[in-house]
Amino acid sequence: MPRPSLRTRSRKRRSLRMPGGSTKTHYKREKTSVSRCSRCGQALSGVPHSTPSELRKLTASQRRLERVYGGQLCHNCVRELLKQAVRSA
């Protein structure tokens, strides 16, 4: 019996024939959704579209952008926030 996280019909499955003649079910990994801006919801460019286990293998500079709010806000929202900060200061 498969582990509980695989006991759902939403997981894509593929039956493979093994060398001994038996068949085995392989479950496809689910693709993660693209990272989005927390302010406007626009897709973030420069942030990899991969699973958490693959992200862990990357360096910190490959995981997110090296700017203020990198990986959280899109470039347009950061620009607006900086404008507001300069105008209010």
- The topology string of helices and strands comes to EEHHH
Helix fraction, binned, reads: 25-40%
Structural class category:
alpha+beta
Individual helix count: 3
Query: What is the straight-line distance between the termini?
Result: 63 Å
Average predicted confidence as pLDDT:
91
What is the CA-atom radius of gyration, in angstroms?
21 Å
In total, how many beta strands? Answer: 2
Shape category: elongated
Number of domains: 1
Amount of beta strand: 5-15%
Uncertain segments are none
Largest sheet entry? 2 strands, antiparallel
> How are the strands ordered across the major sheet?
1-2
3D structure, described in words:
Strand 1 and strand 2 form a beta hairpin. This protein is elongated. The model has no long low-confidence stretch (mean pLDDT 91). It has helices spanning 52-56, 60-63, 75-88, and strands spanning 13-17, 23-27. Strands 1-2 form a two-stranded antiparallel ribbon. Helices cover 26% and strands 11% of the residues. It has three helices and two strands. It has one domain (4-88). With 89 residues, it is of the alpha+beta class.
